[in-house]
Amino acid sequence: MRAFINGCRNVVGLDGCHLKGKYGGCLLSATALDGQNGLVPLGIMVCKNECAENWFLFLKHLKPRLDEHPVQEINFISDRQKGLRDAVHTLFPTSPHRFCFRHMYQNFKSHFKGSKLHTMFWNAARAYKAKYFQAHMDSMMVENVKAFEYLMGEDPKSWCRAFFDHNSSCEHLSNNFSESFNNMIAKIREKPLCTLILMYGKLVMGLFYKRINACVGWDSGDLVPSAKKLLKLMFKKIGEYKVAGAVAGKVYEVTSIHSSIFTIDLDRKTCSCVQWQLRGFPCQHAVCVLQQVRPNWVQYCARYYLVDNYKITYALGMVPLEGPDDWEEPRATIVPLY
């Protein structure tokens, strides 16, 4: 949780999975994302089943630490389980709650056939601007009214990028990082409870240790490697755009080879395509402008993409869990029955 507060985005993925041991049960998990888009485990809870009461109990214990994140509100990403939705709404009533697009997409395909409808849904979800979202949904309404009504039964704020919180610096539509965590713990899901907890602690400790050592050679004041790699990819496409100045050093117009026009404001760190605002990272159009002025790229990115921030995320590491020999014996008073 200290890693989350110190350096992660204010985005939390929630998911549950079944345990495979002798006694069954479920494991509820909360995960976050670091500046390299690596998952950061925040906590787990082992319970008998995945229900509203257990999700409420799990989130209730997490809430005091989640509330310490410097950027509020917390953005949640999960499947659409009713019990989970109710627990999030009760404990975090003002927090945005995204639903995993991949699961929504699979459910949509099971109810409505045809690649045309599926493409309309995909395009609507990934639209960065409300006008484009509306255009795709209008086309769907013409094609199939029931499909339109089915999707609009869920608040678009929970599944369309056009309505996501810009403070999150995250455009993720799916909860893939939480499901990656379930795959990561596959080997411990069949273990007895005490062994499972010890193995989980060792897994997280090893993850933190590996990442803090990996970033030792990274330059302070620079961007993390994944961010620099993304910039290099965008540099290769600069020739596909033309840049025209409007207000020197501040506002520019960028025109694509398809004659699409975008307005970039360097002071506000915005682009009319909205991608810069949502990601917290320069979009292709902003890169075309910034490349001309030879900037310090760090100044135009959210703090999550900075090496210094990444190092702070994992600086405290994780203290090993004590072994069974050091556990305190339970002290329960046994009252004899007569």
Structure description:
Residues 262-294 form the SWIM-type domain. One of its GO terms (molecular function) is zinc ion binding. There is one protein chain. The longest helix has 22 residues, at 193-214. The chain is globular and about 85 Å long. The strands form 2 sheets. It has a 5-stranded mixed beta sheet. It has a 4-stranded antiparallel beta sheet with strand order 6-7-8-9. It is α+β, with helices and mostly antiparallel strands and 338 residues long. It contains 13 helices and 9 strands. Helices cover 41% and strands 15% of the residues. A hairpin with a 7-residue loop joins strand 1 and strand 2 (26-33).
List keywords for this structure.
alpha+beta, 338 residues, single chain
Helix content: 40-55%
What is the average per-residue confidence, as pLDDT, rounded to a whole number? 93
Q: Helix- and strand-based class?
A: alpha+beta
Give the overall silhouette.
Answer: globular
> Sheet with the most strands?
5 strands, mixed
How far apart are the termini?
Answer: 49 Å
What's the helix-strand series?
A: HEEEHEHEHHHHHHHEEEEHHH
> What share of residues are in beta strands?
15-25%
Query: What's the alpha carbon Rg, rounded to whole Å?
Result: 23 Å
Trace the largest sheet across and list its strands. Answer: 3-2-1-4-5
Helix count equals 13
Number of strands: 9
Low-confidence spans: pLDDT under 50, at least 5 residues? none
Lay out the secondary structure.
Blueprint: H1 2-7, E1 11-18, E2 26-33, E3 39-47, H2 52-66, E4 75-78, H3 82-91, E5 97-99, H4 101-111, H5 115-125, H6 130-143, H7 145-152, H8 176-184, H9 193-214, H10 225-235, E6 241-247, E7 251-256, E8 261-265, E9 270-271, H11 275-279, H12 284-293, H13 307-314
Parallel strand pairs: 1-4, 4-5
Antiparallel strand pairs: 1-2, 2-3, 6-7, 7-8, 8-9
Domain SWIM-type: 262-294
Pfam families: MULE (PF10551), SWIM (PF04434)
InterPro entries: MULE_transposase_dom, Znf_PMZ, Znf_SWIM
